[in-house]
Please model this.
Amino acid sequence: MIDTPIVAAVSPGQSLIVFVVSLLIGAVGIYLGAKVIVDTEDYTYAIITALLGAIVWGLVGFFLGWIPLLGPLLVFVAYLAVVNARYPGGWVDAAAITIIAWLSVLVVLYVLALIGVTGFDAVGVPGV
Model:
């Protein structure tokens, strides 16, 4: 008898729900970062920023992410460019927003993973 791995089938509806929930969690991080760094409080704006950031991250990662060492750096700079374009301030503020977003999403996902609600990933915030 041949052992075959069991693969759980995920419906498109389930995938969409996971994407939306992950995007909303990522937007929470961006919202908190923007609130702390540039005193902007607009969650809808953070959702759009997270979505644009995820799209840019994916596209730049697809085309340039394969380049050793330089690829991941270019992908991250492209993500920072999205945050920089969407929020007031400069590159330093964009980097600070991104760091706070990453840390806050890390905490939220850790808590949700501890209680068994979700896995450890979010759309819209890189590296999480």
